[in-house]
Amino acid sequence: MTTIAWIGLGNMGKPMTKNLVDAGFTVVGFDLNEAALAAAVENGVTAARSTAEAVGDADFVFTMLPKGEHALAVYRGEGGVFANARSGAVLVDSSTIDVDTANELHEEAAQAGFEFLDAPVSGGISGAAAGTLTFMVGGEAETLEKARPVIDPMAGNIFHAGGNGAGQASKAVNNMMLAVSLQGVVEGAVLSRKLGLDPKTFHSIAKVSSGDSWPLRTWYPTPGVVETAAANNGFASTFAAALAHKDVGLALAAADSVGVDLPGAKLAYAQLQKLLDEGYGDMDCTLMIRNVDPEAPG
Ligand code: NAD
């Protein structure tokens, strides 16, 4: 019987572990937040009292934590994964973190004798619940093949993005492009309406023209146009502004490390920062439309 340790049972970790339990795996979980741990236990996860206890007997260790600093805290130190996982365990960090920290974890894992993958995901909470996440995996191809059977129940797509850090690099670039195109979409939604165009008609035109993009099709920020858009629901979060802000920040840090200037990403980051400064970090990132038109409907 394969045992999986899971550290971080929040918005993503909870549905991801449910899919592993439903697939027949034994999942031993830990979260600092007792309510998160209790919710996972209701789905069939076995509760551990610490990271050390969770990982002790595991064949695979997954982490799904907010940021690089949390991942470092969970992997390092006396009570951490490196000191307590058993020999031969495969370690997979699915948190979205900075490329530099991912590379540090790869190095420290190798020094401690473990195989490690950076494996962030795309698809949000709904993709996590449906088991259709896209996994972007960095590290050795052979390690991915070992982990593939346990990633499968959570995934719609699994990509070997490349060597160490390539998963995090792919995720950062992807989400940076999403934020930059979203800025174009919110500006288009405002300008088209102010020019007197009917939102549905304009959307139908752009969708089959060169203005098309994923956020245009999925997140159009005017109510009544696209069913999946947060604009239909008072901009309650489908992808929080704070997470989008974090992800663009990771791309900017990565760009800095290779000496690339990204003016569009900087602009999108500043627009997201404005939402955070105004207390809208928990709202949907498509609320960026309010920066262009404070009276925008929704
Ligand atoms: P979350 O904040 O809901 O969950 C993180 C969990 O980690 C929390 O329950 C927290 O208590 C726990 N935690 C933090 N430090 C810990 C420690 N030292 N030991 C044990 N538990 C600890 O976040 P989330 O939405 O589940 O996101 C997790 C990661 O996935 C983030 O990196 C995020 O960027 C990424 N991600 C999120 C989404 C999304 O739509 N929510 C989509 C794709 C990727």
Automatic annotation (TrEMBL):
It comes from the Bacteria. Residues 3-162 form the 6-phosphogluconate dehydrogenase NADP-binding domain. SUPFAM superfamilies: 6-phosphogluconate dehydrogenase C-terminal domain-like, NAD(P)-binding Rossmann-fold domains. Pathway: Amino-acid degradation. PANTHER family: 3-HYDROXYISOBUTYRATE DEHYDROGENASE, MITOCHONDRIAL, 3-HYDROXYISOBUTYRATE DEHYDROGENASE-RELATED. Belongs to the HIBADH-related family. This is 3-hydroxyisobutyrate dehydrogenase. It comes from Brevibacterium samyangense.
